[in-house]
Amino acid sequence: MKSAKRHSKICFINTPTQLYSSSKGCEIENYSTIPPLGLGYVATAASGIVTKDNVSLIDAEFLRLSPRKIVQSIIDDNPDYIAINATTPNFHIVKIIIVSLRRVMEKKIIIGGAHAILSPNSILQDKDIRDLVYCVCIGDGEPTIIDLLKGKKLSQIANIKYIDKNNDIVKSKKEETTQSINKIIDRTFFQNDPLEDGDKIESFILSARGCPFRCSFCAAPMMKPKMTKRDDDSMKQELMELRSQGVNYIRFVDDLFLSSKKRVDRLKQIWNDLKLNKENFGFEATARINIASKFSKETWELLVKMGLKEIEIGIESGSQRIIRMMAKNINNQEVVSTVKMAISQNIKVKGFVMLGYPTETVLDLNITLDLIKKLKRLGGGDIRFSPVIVKAYPGTDIYSKYSHLVDNLSNDYLIDLADYFSDEFTDDEKKILKKRTRYNAVHTLNEIPVALSEITGGAKLYDVLQVLAKLTLLSEN
Q1: What's the CA gap between 238 and 41, in Å, rounded?
Q2: What is the pLDDT of residues 339-356, one digit of tens each?
């Protein structure tokens, strides 16, 4: 094995979610991003092997960089290794970056991220880039990057697939999980953490990886089958460091943060040790409805005292038939009671809604719309919604059942609701809908946009988008 080369340089790329132009960047009002915590952990691990000066992270999503500008940034950095993250929706952008990059420089390119974990073979078989990719990371990235920078051979690098000399796809013999989640991220890699908004100084923390539930539309369990929680001491240390930097608000970005009453009690102890409370600290976090609905009033009051300002919950659908198909294991009564309790405690609510699920009918959509209207009456300005179109992506149950019915999944078709319904909304309403353009991604069939509901005998795309538009406007009012 070669020894670690302290002079080796590695550049991490947080790829953009959409194609930004070289001149205009992002035209969406009030557009904001969160720091790429996953890449932050891996970059921090890399800086323990090579010198910190030899590790860089280009957040192309935050900077709204075009592929051309990304390539130029990499050329300027001139690394030996380039680690690029990829999701299924933006994989076509990743390909543009890789092809453009290899036209001007030959470096070892590693692809990681959700798409690499869930569909590595499709990357290595892609005729446009298969000869340009050094390896694909199919697990925790920290062990991979550490082995890579230590100069190990491909067969000895943890958690990768690659193409061998016989042109076969090979999985390395070494599989390794990591406790790097307990390490403290070097936040100097980020350009948008902390975020300052008046007296509010906000940072982002990941306290666990993975999710124990198996919703049919979600790939998180496939990416991380077991939920890994960080140690209390690690959480305490990171909170202490952020507090020393003036941070007074935390957004916990776990798939599931408030996972049980026991979890709340453990957090309470950390908060007490650090003397955190609603007077000097605020936070927001994810919760699951069938768990939060069982919290006692005392638990909710405790969370308020700790500084909880907003919870994010997956409402998904008002139709119990669709909820059962999603394997969500919640009901509308639990949704309403959770929202009521949160609002009564002055905790804001963000609800996620999914539309266009396979076989979903217009009746199902209207049941969802009615539920959301009811919740809006309960919460008023303290509740907002994030409605999206259901997509079938690798690693999900609906992918295995329905992906063969649509075109290439690596390309999203983005619909501008303001243009789509150009004659059906006022100018003020169109401005609101315009802000949501980047989220309105749908599948295509024969290059024509479709909803999964439509190709399985349910609601047409027009009906799905109508409800999406109504929910978007309802959330803003």
Answers
A1: 13
A2: 999 999 999 999 999 999
Architecture of domain 194-476: Alpha-Beta Horseshoe (3.80)
CB contact at 8 A, 83 and 11: yes
Distance from C-alpha of 48 to C-alpha of 339, rounded to nearest angstrom:
45
Length of the chain: 477
What's the Cα-to-Cα distance from 272 to each of 13, 255, 267, 335, rounded to whole Å? Answer: 38, 25, 9, 30
pLDDT above 80 for 252: yes
Q: What is the pLDDT of residues 370-421, one digit of tens each?
A: 999 999 999 999 999 999 999 998 989 999 999 999 998 777 788 989 999 9
Q: Are 194 and 202 in contact (CB under 8 A)?
A: yes
> Is the separation of the CB atoms in 2 and 33 below 8 Å?
no
Q: What is the dihedral of CA 62, 313, 241, 82, to 10 degrees?
A: -40
**What is the Cα–Cα distance from 180 to 145, expressed in whole angstroms?**
12
The residue written with tokens 């061998």 in the block is: 164
Q: What is the pLDDT of residues 60-119, one digit of tens each?
A: 999 999 999 999 999 999 999 999 999 998 999 999 999 999 999 999 999 999 999 999
Instruction: Tell me which architecture the domain covering 10-171 has in CATH.
Output: 3-Layer(aba) Sandwich (3.40)
Place of tokens 């803003």: 476
What is the crossing angle of helices 362-379 and 332-344, to 10°? Answer: 20
Identify the sign of the CA torsion 251, 253, 258, 264. negative
Structure tokens that stand for 102 in this block: 């290899």
pLDDT grade for 23, boundaries at 50, 70 and 90? low
Report the run of H or E that residue 137 belongs to, with start and end.
strand 135-137
* Proportion of the chain in helix, strand, coil states, percent, rounded to 5: 40, 20, 40
> Which residue is associated with the tokens 């009051």?
301
pLDDT bin (cut points 50, 70, 90) of residue 177 is confident
Return the closest-CA partner of residue 289 out of 260, 330, 242.
Answer: 330
Evaluate whether 172 touches 156 at the Cβ level (below 8 Å).
Answer: yes
Cβ pair 79, 56 in contact under 8 A: yes
Q: Round the average pLDDT of the chain to a whole number and report it.
A: 92
Sequence spans of domains, the chain: 10-171, 194-476
**How far apart (Å, rounded) are the C-alpha atoms in residues 94 and 109?**
11
**Contact at 8 Å (CB) between 170 and 162?**
yes
